[in-house]
């Protein structure tokens, strides 16, 4: 309706997926890298989750486009199927013939023969399941059984599950623990940052050769705040704003137009309930509203503040170092995926940032431990209000909050994000979330940014105190001791047997055999070999089993 007014031949903010408008933010590229890595490894499952409209399907399309030619892909877009229908649908997608009255065995045998044929021809077979949160547990179990089809060296079928955050909760069910342990790569996709929203909007306008500066930076910031960085909502708001601008005969939207567009588009989308809730799907769910968390767009290191442009824009110039008091050098990694631009893109002018002032601002934004706790909950897929961002809330979402002291070496074994209090000389405490442990640096979520610091820098400001969230076995965080019996003892016995490579039994009594087994495991993990399965030991078992949840070391995800 406004195309002629703006001199464009196509609406730039259509919500219909189009390769022409493919925009991969840093997190989209990071998610794509995780998924590609999972397919090149020996695991059977990859998991990609994210809120409604964050771009999961975008990553899925980019993944398919980047697969080698010798890959046969089966895509299931409507997973509301029975286990039998799932097998039949996979056969249909792979071009496998089967009789109308085929049984489970016939369908499985036909799939197996097809997978073997692909393998003999040097082909990899990949199954992509979108909206996987709708899968029933028995269907997920059927998928796991399909990944049992393997040769001596590799899986014949690899599966990528894509879904909303409740998919993570679905995989917590006891009956799906074997599937959860087979997920070798996980990534939770979060919304765009304010900077990415600005680039996203202008990228779409450039893609249709729009000659007008329709949205200035102040307007894109307003849109980013109103939509919480959800690309689908950004499209709807921008489309409405351009329509309103056309009606008012102006080629540049103003604050009033953006406000009206947001009101008309978002008024029915946002919830009114004032309570803590899981980030569930559907148009009525509100996503995490933290500005730059989980981004590689901003890295503060060695006094350097990097603002890195996205895939089609050259990085903005880096300001010179200001002080050794700032975090140490950690160069940003190159983009994992490059997208060929459809039109020529002008390089942005260099921007020099006051890094010392920015660092002080970050510390001031991080004085609240509750805000850090909000960030930690979001990493687990939950949204909390500030007054509920505490340890007590963890019990309502089947998590457990643990506090104490720990070294970085021990933290790497537990492999879960933690809140750490930090302190610069002569200044109040500030709080960061340890998000990732690399070979040479630690990544922190601080204020509204993700930064990289050296291990020395962190240890100089940290007294080893920490707070973390974890999911205890069978929902009970209490210790498991000699002489006890019951389901938790069965669980402990089975998991230790699995980790130690011993025969798995269903003994439900904590006897001398289990005590010796537990002590062997504790010594191997550099834990106190007291023969008591306390929270620290249970968290290490949780990490060793690679159970679902955010991790510090993505290569172990």
UniProtKB/TrEMBL annotation:
It holds the Pfam family PG_binding_1. Gene3D superfamilies: Cysteine proteinases, P-loop containing nucleotide triphosphate hydrolases, PGBD-like superfamily/PGBD. Residues 42-195 form the AAA+ ATPase domain. InterPro entries: AAA+_ATPase, AAA_22, ExeA_AAA_ATPase_DNA-bind, GspA_C39-like, P-loop_NTPase, Peptidoglycan-bd-like, PGBD-like_sf, PGBDSf. Signal peptide: none annotated. SMART domains: AAA (SM00382). This is General secretion pathway protein GspA. The lineage of its organism: Bacteria, Pseudomonadati, Pseudomonadota, Gammaproteobacteria, Vibrionales.
């Amino acid at each position: 309706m406004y195309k002629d007014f703006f001199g464009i031949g196509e609406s730039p903010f259509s919500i219909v997926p189009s390769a022409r408008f493919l925009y991969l933010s840093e997190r989209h590229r990071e998610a794509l890298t995780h998924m590609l890595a999972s397919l090149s490894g020996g695991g059977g499952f990859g998991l990609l989750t994210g809120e409604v409209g964050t771009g999961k399907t975008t990553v899925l399309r980019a993944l398919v486009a980047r697969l080698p030619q010798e890959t046969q892909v089966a895509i299931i877009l409507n997973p509301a199927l029975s286990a039998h229908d799932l097998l039949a649908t996979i056969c249909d997608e792979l071009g496998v013939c089967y009789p109308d009255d085929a049984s489970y065995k016939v369908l499985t045998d036909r799939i197996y023969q097809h997978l073997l044929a692909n393998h003999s021809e040097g082909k990899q077979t990949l199954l992509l399941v979108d909206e996987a949160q709708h899968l029933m547990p028995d269907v997920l179990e059927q998928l796991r059984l399909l990944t049992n089809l393997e040769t001596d060296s590799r899986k014949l079928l690899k599966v990528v599950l894509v879904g909303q955050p409740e998919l993570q909760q679905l995989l917590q069910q006891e009956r799906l623990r074997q599937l959860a342990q087979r997920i070798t790569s996980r990534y939770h996709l979060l919304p765009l940052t304010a900077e990415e929203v600005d680039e996203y909007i202008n990228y779409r306008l450039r893609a249709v050769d729009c000659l007008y500066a329709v949205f200035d930076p102040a307007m894109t910031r307003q849109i980013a705040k109103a939509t919480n960085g959800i690309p689908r909502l950004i499209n709807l708001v921008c489309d409405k704003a351009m329509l309103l601008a056309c009606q008012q005969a102006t080629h540049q939207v103003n604050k009033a137009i953006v406000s009206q567009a947001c009101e008309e588009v978002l008024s029915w989308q946002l919830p009114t309930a004032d309570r803590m809730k899981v980030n569930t799907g559907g148009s009525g769910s509100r996503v995490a509203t933290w500005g730059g968390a989980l981004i590689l767009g901003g890295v503060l290191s060695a006094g350097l503040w990097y603002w890195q442009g996205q895939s089609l824009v050259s990085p903005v110039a880096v300001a010179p170092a200001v002080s050794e008091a700032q975090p140490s050098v950690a160069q940003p990694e190159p983009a994992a995926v490059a997208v060929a631009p459809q039109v020529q893109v002008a390089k942005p002018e260099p921007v020099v940032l006051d890094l010392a002032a920015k660092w002080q601002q970050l510390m001031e934004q991080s004085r609240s431990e509750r805000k850090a706790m909000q960030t930690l909950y979001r990493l687990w897929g939950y949204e909390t209000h500030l007054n509920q961002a505490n340890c007590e809330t963890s019990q309502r979402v089947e998590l457990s909050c643990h506090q104490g002291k720990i070294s970085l070496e021990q933290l790497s074994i537990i492999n879960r994000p933690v809140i750490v209090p930090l302190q610069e000389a002569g200044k109040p405490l500030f709080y960061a979330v340890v998000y990732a442990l690399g070979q040479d640096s630690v990544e922190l979520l601080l204020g509204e940014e993700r930064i990289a610091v050296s291990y020395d820098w962190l240890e100089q400001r940290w007294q080893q105190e920490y707070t973390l969230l974890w999911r205890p076995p069978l929902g009970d965080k209490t210790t498991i001791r000699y002489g006890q019996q019951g389901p938790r003892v069965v669980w402990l016995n089975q998991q230790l047997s699995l980790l130690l490579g011993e025969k798995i039994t269903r003994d439900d009594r904590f006897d001398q055999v289990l005590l010796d087994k537990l002590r062997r495991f504790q010594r191997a993990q550099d834990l106190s070999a007291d023969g008591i399965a306390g929270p620290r030991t249970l968290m290490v078992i949780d990490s060793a089993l690679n159970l679902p949840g955010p991790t510090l070391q993505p290569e172990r995800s």
